[in-house]
Write a structure and sequence with these properties.
The protein is built from 7 helices and 10 strands. The structure holds 2-amino-2-deoxy-6-O-phosphono-alpha-D-glucopyranose.
C-alpha cells in the first residue's frame, strides 16, 4: 500500500483528482469505480473544476458505483444516485447511460445483484476504484462480520453505520435499514484502488485497515491483499499512521 499523508486539504483533493484525470487522459474509455460519502466530495469538486477548465473529459468513460440504499426513492435527496448527480455527473460530460448505480428499488433484489455483477464483468475490470472507509472499517456497505460476501449482495446495515449516516437525514428513523453493495471480491478486482480518508474520526479505522491483521471484522483490511492501493489521508485520519 502506498500511503500519502497530507497537511493541506487542497493538496489532498488535487492529488486524488490528478490520479483520476491522468487515468482519463491516458485512457479516455476508463472504467471508474465511484464511491459516495463525504470523503470523495472534495475530489469530485476538483474534477468538476478541472473539467470546466478543459483539463479532463469523461465523455467516453464508464462508471460503476459501489452501493445504494434499499427502498429510498431514486430521486430522494439522500439516494446515492442523487448524490452522484449533484456532486459529479450533472457537472461533467459523462454519458448518463454509462453511469451505473445498483438499483435499490428493484422488485427482485437477488436478480439486481446478479445483473450488476454481470454488467461489471462485461465492462470491467474497473481501472480505478475510489473508496472511502466507514468508522467501523466498512468499504462500500460491506460491514464487519464473521464472513464477507464476494459478490454484490443485500446487506443489513449495522446500527453504528445508520447512526453515522443519520447526519444526512432528518432523523435516524429515516435512514434505510438495508443497502445493496458490491462485494469485497468485486472491489478487489479493480486494477487500482484509491482510498480517500479524512478526519480524526477515521484514524482508528484506517490504522486497523493498513496496520492491523487482515480480518473480516475490518473489511478494509482486505485491501492489504491488493497489489495496487493508494491511500490518501489527511492529518486527522493519519494521526496514528
Ligand atoms: C458510507 C458509504 C461508504 C463510505 C463510508 C464513509 O456509508 N456506504 O461507501 O465510504 O460510509 O462515509 P464518509 O466518507 O461520509 O465518512
Amino acid at each position: 500500500m502506498n500511503i500519502l499523508k497530507f497537511h493541506s486539504d487542497e493538496d489532498f483533493v488535487q492529488t486524488g483528482a490528478n490520479l483520476i484525470a491522468s487515468l482519463l487522459q491516458s485512457n479516455p474509455k476508463a472504467v471508474l469505480g465511484l464511491a459516495t460519502g463525504s470523503s470523495p466530495v472534495g475530489v469530485y469538486a476538483k474534477l468538476v473544476e478541472m473539467h470546466q477548465k478543459g483539463l479532463v473529459s469523461f465523455s467516453k468513460a464508464t462508471s460503476f458505483n459501489l452501493d445504494e440504499y434499499i427502498g429510498l426513492p431514486v430521486d430522494h435527496p439522500q439516494s446515492y444516485r442523487s448524490f452522484m448527480n449533484e456532486q459529479l455527473f450533472n457537472h461533467i460530460d459523462i454519458d448518463s447511460g454509462q453511469t451505473h448505480i445498483p438499483n435499490g428499488n428493484a422488485a427482485d433484489m437477488e436478480a439486481e445483484c446478479l445483473a450488476y455483477d454481470k454488467m461489471l464483468e462485461e465492462n470491467g475490470p474497473v481501472d480505478l476504484q475510489i473508496l472511502g472507509i466507514g468508522s467501523n472499517g466498512h468499504i462500500g456497505f460491506n460491514e464487519p462480520d464473521a464472513n464477507l460476501s464476494s459478490k454484490t449482495h443485500v446487506v443489513d446495515l449495522l446500527e453504528d453505520t445508520r447512526e453515522a449516516n443519520a447526519r444526512f437525514f432528518d432523523s435516524l428513523d429515516e435512514v434505510p435499514r438495508q443497502a445493496i453493495t458490491m462485494g469485497i471480491g468485486g472491489i478487489l478486482k479493480a486494477r487500482q484502488i484509491l482510498l480517500l480518508v479524512r478526519g480524526a474520526g477515521k484514524a482508528e479505522a484506517i490504522r486497523n485497515a493498513v496496520e492491523g491483521p487482515i480480518t473480516t471484522q475490518c473489511p478494509a483490511s482486505l485491501l492489504q491483499s491488493h497489489p495496487n492501493v493508494i491511500v490518501l489521508v489527511d492529518e486527522g485520519a493519519g494521526k496514528w499512521l
